[in-house]
Amino acid sequence: MKSIIGSLVLLAGLTANAGLLTLAPGNKQIEGVTLNQTAQAAGTGSMSLLGAGLRSKTVLFVAAKVYVAEIFSSEAAKFSRDANALKSLETANATAIRLTFLRGVDAATVASSYREALAANNVNLQDAAIAQFLANVEKGGDAASGKSFVMLLTLTANGGTQLTYEDTKNQISVVQGPRALQQQILSIWLGNSADAGLEKLKKSLLNPVY
Hints:
By secondary structure, the protein is α+β, with helices and mostly antiparallel strands. The protein is 24% helix and 36% strand. Strands 1-2-3-4-5-6-7-8 form an 8-stranded antiparallel sheet, covered by helices on one side.
């Protein structure tokens, strides 16, 4: 069945101030970014923090600090902190990824990094839902220091996945895709690592924070 794709500029009930997620800050930080204990979005219930870590990228032989990643899930008890981490989230009704940037990165570069990571996991970049997601990222706001990108993955009643993406300007886009979309997006961080920086981040994400 072909994916049904939808893109929305704003979702009802969201404001620029509120953002997609309601967060409950904890008492730990990475690179000055406070790590949240839980996150919640409309209709998802509470999602617990699974793990967090620093994404670095080697540029001209220097490891540049890019962003701090946090992953939340509505079914944290099922999360496997090993090679089965990605698969263990397959039935989670809601999963969220929050990336808080430590430096400015233009939207096209962010999208390119996602492409590399998806390709490393044998994801077809021409799939309708994936292509729409990447297009939304490119059209969204650039990453800026102290600002966050959010991806919310929710399983739908018709057996699909809804991917809600919020850029640094709190603009929202939505993609409706097949169930496989959930695992494809999560593979960027929990699947085959595209580079050493993502591999190090993955190891951090597998460790509990709170």
